[in-house]
Amino acid sequence: MTTYRRRQIIYVLTDAVSSLVVWLSFLIFRWLVYNGRVLGMQQVLIPAFSFVTPLVLYPVACLIVYYLSGFYLHPLRRKITRDVLNTFLSAVIISLFTFFVVIIDDHVADYRVYLVSLFVLFSMQFTISLLTRLIVITISRTYSKDKNEIIIDLPEEATEQELFNAIKAAYPTGKDILVRPRIKDILTGAARIVDLNGEAYIRITDHKMSDAQLCQKRAFDVLMSAAAIVVLSPVFLVVACLVKASSHGSIIYCQQRVGLHGLPFTIYKFRTMYENAEQDGVPHLTDNNDPRITQLGSVLRKYRLDELPQLWNVFKGDMSIVGPRPERAYFISRIEQLAPYYCLIYKIRPGLTSWGPIKVGYTDTIDKMVRRLQYDIAYMENMSLLLDLKIMFYTVGVLLGGKGK
Q: Which of 203, 281, 348, 397 is most buried when burial is the number of CB atoms within 10 A of its CB?
């Protein structure tokens, strides 16, 4: 387990414990105040919720809000002011959610009790969470020696191929990659000051989406893939039976692709070719009337039904709903001969669909793969949740039009 991953686990556990402390403190406050034991504020208060169940649900709800806020992605890279704002907004959301879902059902004699309860819950949530977070972050920044960064500093005369080779080699570490800019990078404004003694670097692994948007995108992927697997399970069953009956071989075809950070992963598809279609061991692109494709396989590929099992890849985290299509290492090496910057897309998860496949269509040549790469990089540089929704909308048209191959 990497140091970065251990830090994330510590932050999650800290927030879980602090949320539990908040809820217990809130229950004690209600018991003391509204039973007249302190402050002389005796009121009739009959809670409409169980005291035990929220001990589990409240911390879970808090962790969900914190995750969607993007706090756990790069906590040591952000400024303290952003952490304070993040914690404040999260406390507002958590308090209001708890108020409208739980507290508002209480039976009270005076409705001012509602407002007092809401204010106290917010104050506890914000104060306790912020203090524990600041303590953990301060300790991490003080004693951590691993900055989770790799700096690439090549001489000015180094070629672009050497630069991209260095970037490609650094990606599998999962660390942030920073490149010392050259003169043209400084003149074009590509270089930015990062927290490394005030020097200018280009952070290759920076995303156009904020940490919160990246976490929301991942949450959307998990929910959508899980829902699609359940809803489309009858389709899975029918297609699986048809594949098994149509030709000899396995139902699911597994293949190695290159994904996030340039790491290999296994992609799953319904088998559309005859068994041992690549007997010579050399990957081949498909073309029109490819004899390796079964009759059923041509139909599945036309409507992209063969890619349905990749919803499991999305659920697991290998892929995203929207992202550059993953390729095999063999074809990547050929693409890099024409586009050595291919490794730049390693900073995002590959996807089921993206702008590239929509604009270029099925890529049955290396030149088309390079063209698709241009659109994938354009997508990467303009990533947003709204753009993902637009791409998904256009993808529906591609599927209904049977433009697969």
A: 348
**Which long-range contacts (C-beta less than 8 Å, at least 24 apart) are formed by 160-167?**
160/340, 160/341, 161/340, 164/336, 164/340, 164/341, 164/342, 164/343, 164/344, 165/340, 167/204, 167/343, 167/344
How large is the greatest C-alpha to C-alpha distance in the chain, in angstroms?
A: 86
Q: Which residues contact 87 (CB under 8 A, 6 or more apart)?
A: 71, 126, 129, 130, 133
Residue-wise pLDDT for 12-63, tens only, equals 999 999 999 999 898 888 777 665 444 444 444 445 456 677 788 899 999 9
Residue among 334, 245, 332 at smallest CA distance from 295: 245
Q: What are the extents of the domains in the chain?
A: 3-143, 149-203, 211-400
3-state secondary structure of 189: coil
Q: Which residue from 172, 329, 332, 178 is spatially nearest to 260, judged by alpha carbons?
A: 172
d(CA 386, CA 392) in angstroms, rounded, equals 10
Tokens standing for 182?
């050259």
3-state secondary structure of 177: strand
339, 366 in Cβ contact below 8 A? no
Q: What is the pLDDT of residue 152?
A: 87
C-alpha–C-alpha distance, residues 74 and 3, integer Å: 13
Number of other CB atoms surrounding residue 73 within 10 Å: 17
Tokens for 89, please give them.
């907004």
Of the candidates 332, 272, 267, the one whose C-alpha atom is nearest the C-alpha of residue 304 is 272
- Alpha-carbon distance 240 to 394, whole Å? 27
- Find where tokens 């809130």 sit: 26
Closest alpha carbon to 247 in 276, 275, 288, 268 = 275
Instruction: Count the helices and strands in the chain (H runs, E runs).
Output: 14, 10
> Which burial class, exposed, middle or buried, applies to 43 when counting CB atoms under 10 A from its CB (0-12, 13-18, 19+)?
middle
Q: Which two tokens stand for residue 291?
A: 């004899």
Q: 278 to each of 1, 35, 106, 275, 284, how far by Cα in Å?
A: 37, 77, 67, 9, 7
Q: Using one digit for the tens of pLDDT, what is the confidence trace for 184-240? A: 555 445 555 555 555 677 888 888 899 999 999 999 999 999 999 999 999 999 999
With CA atoms as reference, report the closest residue to 47 among 22, 26, 30: 30
Mapped onto helix, strand or coil, the DSSP state of residue 13 is helix
Distances (CA, A) of 56 to 29, 50, 96: 19, 11, 18
